[in-house]
């Protein structure tokens, strides 16, 4: 019985190690429009450390996607699909959904924006 407890404890410790050794990506995207100019703001954090913090004005609202590059990261936002992807295909082989969280407007409705979020974790075996 004692050996079963030791194995179980060992399994728990290894499981905890793999979970802690993994990497988590936290993405926050805000999209708004004022006077015909769309604005996209992204904040991408890896394990609570900001890796991308950038905003862009987009003069034509027809843009299919926007690319944000900073600190060695390349983030692509696919506006029409409401999806996103990082340049790490070994950990993120497909696009991920942007989850609509909130919509906000100023009191006079002169400026409105939507907020999208996603959170993604993977084990970094490199």
Distance from first to last alpha carbon: 37 Å
Structural class from helices and strands? alpha+beta
Helix content: 10-25%
Mind summarizing the main beta sheet?
5 strands, antiparallel
Outline the secondary-structure elements.
Layout: H1 2-21, E1 23-34, E2 37-46, E3 49-58, E4 65-70, E5 73-78, E6 83-86, E7 96-97, E8 99-105, E9 112-122
Antiparallel strand pairs: 1-2, 1-9, 2-3, 4-5, 5-6, 6-7, 8-9
Structure report:
By secondary structure, this protein is of the alpha+beta class. The chain has a single domain (24-122), classed as AOC barrel-like (Beta Barrel), CATH 2.40.350. Helices cover 16% and strands 54% of the residues. The chain is built from one helix and nine strands, in the order H-E-E-E-E-E-E-E-E-E. The chain has one helix at residues 2-21, and strands at 23-34, 37-46, 49-58, 65-70, 73-78, 83-86, 96-97, 99-105, 112-122. The protein has a five-stranded antiparallel β-sheet with strand order 3-2-1-9-8, with no helix packed on it. The longest helix has 20 residues, at 2-21. It is elongated, with a radius of gyration of 19 Å.
List keywords for this structure.
single chain; 126 residues; alpha+beta; AOC barrel-like; 5-stranded antiparallel sheet; 4-stranded antiparallel sheet; 54% strand
Explain briefly what this protein structure is.
The chain has 126 residues and is of the alpha+beta class. Helix content is 16%, strand content 54%. The relative contact order is 0.20.
């Amino acid at each position: 019985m004692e050996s079963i407890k030791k194995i179980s404890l060992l399994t728990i410790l290894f499981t905890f190690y793999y979970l802690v050794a993994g990497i988590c990506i936290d993405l926050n995207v805000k999209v708004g429009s004022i006077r015909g100019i769309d604005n996209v703001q992204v904040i991408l954090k890896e394990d609570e450390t900001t890796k991308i913090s950038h905003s862009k004005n987009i003069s034509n609202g027809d843009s299919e996607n926007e690319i944000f590059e900073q600190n060695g990261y390349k983030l692509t936002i696919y506006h029409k699909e409401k999806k996103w992807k990082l340049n790490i295909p070994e950990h993120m082989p497909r696009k991920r959904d942007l989850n609509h969280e909130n919509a906000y407007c100023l009191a006079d409705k002169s400026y409105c924006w939507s907020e999208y979020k996603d959170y993604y974790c993977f084990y970094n075996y490199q």
